[in-house]
Amino acid sequence: MGVSRSLQSALPLQVAAICYRRKGGAIEFLLVNTNGGSKWTFPKGATERDLSHSQAAEQEALEEAGVKGMIEPRPFHLYLYSKGVFWKPPGVREFVVKAFLMEVSETYHPHEAKRNPTWFPPEETKRILAKGREVKYAREIQSVVDRALAHMGAAKAAVAR
Q1: Is the pLDDT of residue 35 over 80?
Q2: Distance between CA atoms of 161 and 156, rounded to whole angstroms?
Q3: Which residues pair with 68 in a beta bridge?
Q4: If you count Cβ atoms within 10 Å of the first and of the last residue's Cβ in the chain, which end, N or C, has fewer?
Q5: Phi, psi (5° rounding) for residue 143?
């Protein structure tokens, strides 16, 4: 997975639900606005004491994007994510994020009103995720889309066997 084990233990951990749906023969990913509203991201947040990491990611998907579905119990990827800007306290903070694939089957109004959940095709998802981010973090979050598509392709091939 993307992040080394030494980094994993040194940085705080978050979990993300990489929400997708199949529309015709195509895949679409669900993104939400960040808390500041200027960027897009996957639904994500802190781990919860009484929930597994996949359950915590599933909860974030419901709260931020208003979606439910089938979430995989194991992460398919790890990536680095940053929050904040260097000129405002507490400055830039880095997190390691465990990414869990979730195929969406139900949609509701999100609990967090300003998140504006929106579906995008894979290439547009990558472009939108990169916008307004430093190159290092843009590449990290874009890699999630590529890994998700590869993971879905591998899973589909395994089912076909």
Answers
A1: no
A2: 9
A3: 106
A4: C
A5: -65, -25
- The token duo for 33 is 């606005």
Query: Helix, strand, coil shares of the chain as percentages rounded to 5?
Result: 35, 35, 30
Closest CA to 85 of 126, 133, 49, 122: 133
- C-alpha separations of 105 from 18, 22, 67, 114 in Å: 13, 10, 8, 22
**DSSP conformational letter for 12:** -
Q: Give 91-156 as a DSSP string.
A: --EEEEEEEEEEEEEEE---SSGGG--EEE-HHHHHHHHHTTS-HHHHHHHHHHHHHHHHHHHHHH
